[in-house]
Automatic annotation (TrEMBL):
InterPro entries: DHBP_synth_RibB-like_a/b_dom (IPR017945), Sua5-like_dom (IPR006070), Sua5/YwlC_C (IPR038385), Sua5_C (IPR005145), T(6)A37_SUA5 (IPR010923), TC-AMP_synthase_SUA5 (IPR050156). GO terms for cellular component: cytoplasm. PANTHER family: SUA5, THREONYLCARBAMOYL-AMP SYNTHASE. ATP binds at residues 53, 57, 113, 138, 146, 190, 226. The keyword Nucleotidyltransferase applies. The lineage of its organism: Bacteria, Pseudomonadati, Pseudomonadota, Alphaproteobacteria, Hyphomicrobiales. Belongs to the SUA5 family. L-threonine binds at residues 30, 62, 117, 136, 176. SUPFAM superfamilies: YrdC/RibB. It holds the Pfam family Sua5_yciO_yrdC. Signal peptide: none annotated. Its main location: cytoplasm. This is Threonylcarbamoyl-AMP synthase.
Length: 319
């Protein structure tokens, strides 16, 4: 395993590995991604194998801009406006695949639609240099906490990932928002790093939430996901024996001093800061002496919707 700091040499090395069908862990503004050439079925299959990810769970194809997206998906007027406004950035759109398509069916899990995103930073540069879309789910074992640093990736995968590009800690800290435009409606498939209110402001349309029992059309729709090894207890008003505490804002939990360990997502009650810290703090509290992580209530406004989505999936019953 090689870890390289972001640089021109790192771009060249990543492009070379991807071109040869190798896996590369890449930083984005949201979380780190486990990347492979989206047109190479063998390389994409290695993503699923390495993560232990079910193949019915589609991947996001990352592009270097709207021009590359136009080559692989059909773009409606609303989606075009959103791309023009929020790309590059933490917004993924599920759109109809063009036929024929160079995208391997494993990337889309055999669906007639594809999730596409234009990330910020070195990832987009690498995609542009490669000249082909890059499939990349979050760089984690399937169902576990997403990686927000290069060291997280190294700790989780070791030698299974031959190259990691280190872009430092991710800025947003939760995965992208995923939407699907259908007949003038916008469906929210996964809340994420772009607040839904921003999308509604640009389009003038209210986002419709998708039932968790709906068919999987995009990443992050599995009921149990983003989970630490310890159990997670939400909306905690007190701390029980053997629990750690994930706090938010001013102190509000009874018996907080009895927690095995405590971290505060944002003492100021800032949701952007809380989102950035979420996965890292859950990982820090996920210790051998912790049976359960008690989580204080977090508002559902703005990025709070994405934070609560990840916490609800982390707390869901596990198979």
């Amino acid at each position: 395993m090689i870890i390289l700091a972001s640089s021109k040499d790192a771009v060249s090395k990543a492009v070379s590995y991807l071109d040869k069908g190798e896996l590369v862990a890449l930083p984005t503004e949201t979380v780190y991604g486990l990347a492979a050439d989206a047109t190479n079925g063998k390389a994409v299959a290695n993503i699923f194998k390495t993560k232990g990810r079910p193949q019915f769970n589609p991947l996001i194809a990352h592009v270097s801009g709207v021009d590359m997206a136009e080559d692989i998906v059909e773009i409606d007027a609303i989606s075009q406006k959103l791309m023009d406004t929020f790309w590059p950035g933490p917004l993924t759109l599920v759109l109809p695949l063009k036929n024929p398509t160079p995208i391997d069916p494993l990337t889309s899990a055999g669906l007639k639609t594809l999730a596409v995103r234009n990330p910020v930073g070195i990832f987009a540069t690498i995609v542009k240099e490669l000249g082909r879309p890059v499939a990349a789910p979050s760089a984690n074992i399937s169902g576990r906490l997403s990686s927000t640093t290069a060291q997280d990736v190294a700790d989780m995968f070791g030698e299974k990932v031959p190259l990691i590009i280190d872009g430092g800690a991710t800025r947003v800290g939760v995965e992208s928002t995923i939407i699907k435009v259908m007949e003038g409606r916008i469906l929210l498939l996964r809340p994420g790093g772009l607040a839904t209110g921003e999308i509604e402001k640009v389009t003038g349309l209210k986002l419709e939430r998708v039932d968790q029992r709906a068919a999987i059309e995009a990443p992050g729709m599995l009921k149990s996901h983003y989970a630490p090894n310890a159990f997670v207890r939400l909306d905690a008003k007190d701390v029980k024996n053997g629990e750690a505490l994930l706090a938010f804002g001013k102190q509000q939990t009874v018996n907080a001093a009895h927690a095995v360990a405590t971290l505060n997502l944002s003492e100021r009650g800032n949701l952007e800061e809380a989102a950035s810290n979420l996965f890292h703090y859950l990982k820090e509290l996920d210790r051998k002496d912790v049976e359960c992580i008690a989580v204080e209530p977090i508002p559902f406004t703005g990025l709070g919707e994405a934070i609560n989505d990840r916490l609800q999936r982390a707390a869901a019953p596990r198979k």
